[in-house]
Fold:
Amino acid sequence: MCPKPVRRYNDRAGFTLIELVVVVGLISIVMAILVLGVRRASDAFSLRRAATIVASETRRAASSAVAEGVDYTVEFKLSSPYGITVYRQTAVQRTFAGQEWPLSVTIPSAGTTVPNCTTPGSAANACVTFKSLGYAVAGGTVQLLSRTGVSVSVAITAATGRVSIGP
Structure:
C-alpha cells in the first residue's frame, strides 16, 4: 500500500478582502432593491384596504338607512388621524381610525368633493348622509392618497347612493 501524497495548499487559499467587499456590496444593492419593492407593495395594499373600508362602510350605511328607516351619515376625517366615522342619526355606530385605518393613507381635502359636515360630525370634515330611501343627500368623491403619491377615488352617486372605486 502506497500512502497518499499529501496535498500542499499554496498561498492563494481563501478569499481576498476585495472579493469579500464586492460580494457584500452586491448583496447590499440587491437587498435595497427588494426593500423598495416590498414598501411599494405594502403601500399599494394599504391604499386598497382603505378604499375597501370606505366603500364597504358607505354601502353598509346606505343599506342600513333603508333597512332601519333612519338617516345614516359617513364622516371622512380630512386631518390626522385620518379615517371614517359612521353615525346612525346622531349616535356614533362605528369608527375606523388609528390602528384600523392604514397609517400610510391620507384623505386630502383637495381631491375630496363630498360636502362638509353639518350635524353630526365636525364641520372641518366631509360627510355624506343617506336617507331612508337609500339615496345620498349629496354625492361626490373621496380621494385616498398613499405616501408614495398614488391615489384612488371612491365615488358616491347622490341620486342612487351607488358607491364605486376608481383610479
Observations:
- The first helix runs from residue 17 to 68.
- The chain has one domain: 19-166.
- The mean pLDDT is 86.
- Strands lie at 72-77, 83-88, 91-97, 105-106, 126-130, 140-146, 151-156, 163-166.
